[in-house]
Amino acid sequence: MWKMASNIKDDMRAVGARLNLVTWSSLINAYANSGLVDGAIEILEEMIRDGCQPTAPCFNIILTALVKSCQYDRAFRLFNSWIEFGIKVSLSLEQKGSLPDNFTFCEEHPGTNGGTILVVPFRPTVTTYNILMMACGTNDERAKSVMNEMKRNGLCPDRISWSILMDIYGTSKNRNGAIQVSTKALS
């Protein structure tokens, strides 16, 4: 699937078509669903170099692929790196000049060969935190900590968040915790 998606991207480029957010997201998804998470990250960086602003779902696709492949620690490391440092992408002067005016980045540093390095911010959503909670397995304390971080960052857990947390408490055989979460979710 990822090869076909990559060929379509190359064909579009060959005829001078500019890829949009949907196309880039589909490419990231094709790589991620094929287990090629590093390739998906490279596509994300290529997307930025091409001047297309990534949205939270682009990042969430990659995190979901890591969770589905049981790479829980890597999902957390990547998330924490994105939160702390953003996404660093090297651009040539030509690539930097072709970025749209509304392209958001938080820092710019001199790069090699006269280029520049942009730091693109990562803004997690409730869905992002839900993905991370699923990465907690049966560690109910870690899942609760992820939910608390979500709240500290001004996001409100949704029904899916509460359901994931209840499931984790149940799976970890913490009946009282599951009941407490159920009570909080209903209040």
TrEMBL record:
* Keyword Transit peptide applies: yes
Q: Which InterPro entries match?
A: PPR_rpt, TPR-like_helical_dom_sf
Spell out the NCBIfam families in the cross-references: PPR
Has UniProt tagged this entry with the keyword Transit peptide? yes
PPR repeats span: 20-54
Q: Which PANTHER family match?
A: OS03G0856100 PROTEIN (PTHR47447), OS12G0638900 PROTEIN (PTHR47447:SF17)
Q: Which Gene3D superfamilies match?
A: Tetratricopeptide repeat domain
Which Pfam families does the record match to this protein?
PPR_2, PPR_3
Question: Into which family does the record put it?
Answer: Belongs to the PPR family. P subfamily.
> What organism does the record attribute this protein to?
Aegilops tauschii subsp. strangulata (Goatgrass)
Mind listing the UniProt keywords for this protein, alphabetically?
Repeat, Transit peptide
Its protein name is: Pentatricopeptide repeat-containing protein
